[in-house]
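FW: tagging you since you asked about this chain on Friday. Here's the raw sequence from the shared folder, copied in full. Didn't touch anything.
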Amino acid sequence: MPTQTSPGKGITKFFKTLNNVEHSHIRLAVLAPIGSVIGAKRSVFLGLLILTVSQVFGQNAEYSPYSRFGFGLVGSLQSPVHAGMGGMESVLYSSFQFNPNNPASASALGQTTFQGSAVTTQLQMNQGDGTNATARFGSSGPLGLAVKKQGGKNTLILGVSPYSNSGFAISRLSDLDNIGSAQERYDGKGGLSKAHVGWARTIRGRGYVKAGVADSVLIQTNTLHLGIQTQYLFGAVSRTSVLDIIDPTFLDHRSVIDMQHRSISADLGLIYNHLLFARYSEDQSFEKSASMRFGARFTPSAALFSDISQVDETTQNLGGIDIPLDTAFFIAASNVQGRMPASWNTGFALIFDHVNGRHLGAGIEYSETLWDQVESEFNETLRPSGLTWVRSQTFRFGAEWTLGNAEQRHPTWGKANYRVGFSIVQQPYALESIPLVARSVSAGFSLPLVGSRSLSRLHFGMELGERYTSAEGLNENFTRMHIGFSLMPFFKNNWLRERLYD
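HL: got it, structure written out here
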């Protein structure tokens, strides 16, 4: 009886190209013509998506074929407030939610704040030949605690948030020379998260401005928010590739790669707010003001340590279960060293406030992550054939506003904060030298929890976007919904507040 113990060079190359991840409680099976996406030369048959959702947990939130490379889709999740503004990190901060990517934003909080969120996503995948499929899934978002005395200058930051998100399972049928029909399956699970602990401080400057014709008033004219945090990146990615030959006279092949990653680095952030003008009446009452804001964040390059194991084995499919028969290849390595890239962000915004409570802020930001400078440091399991690491570039625009005329507006919706945004992101890798691009529009709002008699709020955000390459291939359209909260102490129970007793 003839046996086949190896899938051949072509299929082995295809195995190494894929980095497939799937959540343990969500099964996504695809028979899709993705040959044009990954450069495969074989024809691929009809596409079909089958999705079953039972229970969702953890930080995985992207079940996309584009997440199969490297660490997955990097930086795809934000807190609801910042997601509604296109993912702004620096210049459009708030007093009721901080951005875990920029520690300086925590010092702008009014008081101690605990925040969390959840995300649901609908993903529609379209192939150039008209094949399409839809998937729905969800996960948790960033979680954080900022401890600050009301009116204080210092803030302690604790939190954990997703860094990269991956997950999918792909199947396709192929015809192999001298073998016949074979089914290829690519499955996986995992993703990376980051835990951070840091410190932020506010430095305030004061000055006199005119009040009426001959008087003046002392006000806060400049504010500098500084922040630093230690960031611990951790997580695991596991992927499995199976060649199932239909002819039972041939043995099957399975390749399993497990990777655990860890890295420690630091985030440095600053936000500077400068008063352009402020107008006060004769009785020293505020009328309106305008401010200019500049923000920046820098993360230096850091060492990456990985534990990697790979096993190739021949199998026999019995009753739908792959039974291992023999190990063809095995390798295990601990503390394989690489490097995570340096990244930076900068932005500019204008802020306008009015005596009737109206507030308007609008800004732009630009970010870069230098993945191209660390590509040679990566283990080959993170650099499969057809993949090139490139410099990730992000452009964001965002705006936020609050309605005026407090006595005339709705008691709930009139007190809400509204926001819109737009972003264009070049992902950190190119497929067959063609970069992967994502763009989205977003909107959101925050509602005060009036019954709590505190400054606590509920936050909502929505993103509509797409991921695509300029080549004919897989195009993804996604709708992402964020819901979150920020809890602050009741005004009679403020933390870190000195008590006076008679």
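FW: Residues 9-308+339-493 form a domain with the Porin fold (CATH 2.40.160).
HL: agreed, and The CA atoms of residues 293 and 446 lie 22 Å apart.
FW: great, closing this out.
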